[in-house]
Here is the input.
Amino acid sequence: MKIYNVKNIPSAAVSFAAILSIAACGGPAPERVREVYYDFSSQVSHRNGPEAGKVVNEATLRHYALLKVIALNGGRGMNSIGIYDELSVYFLRARYDIPALEKFTGRDILSILVQAGLVGEDDFETFELEDLRYTNNQARADLFKNGADTELDVWFEREDGRWRIDGKRFREIRNEMLERRIIQFDGNREEVISELLKSRGVLEGLTPELKRPLKS
Here is the structure.
């Protein structure tokens, strides 16, 4: 499988390089990958959940459907998710009862969390893609802000002929970065989650009730 790299290609030449890739190798167009990212990051920054959900892949939607299941039923699933996903589960428990939550799809859950500011970073639309690497069906790129590497990167997958965001790697790194900061500053994990909940409108923060599944 041939891997293309468009690092250091001037932006004005990206479209031409993409045309050559398609014509000569059947490769995907890097400009379209960039468009998908900037569409997603803009929708997330403006908290437009329904539109953000249109450009993610099926694996990402399944992940958010899993968060709904964990919010309802708990179980071992809570041990397999990162701190931001854990925060999202508590948020869902705080905001919805069982009948309401059961009706939601993974796309609905993603939309809810985007609107709550629980997906992406502050000023997400100002992040820039750098060092884009891609094959015919997958792509990945580093995320920079103001010319500096953020340590984050984002993956893409082509489904049904269209490029879509694969949120897995971005979520993993974002979770790792927050966990490291908590350790670095001798923070308390539950207190951090509680404060983040308060900043999203759950005024009581992390309560014992939110730690229990809705169906407990």
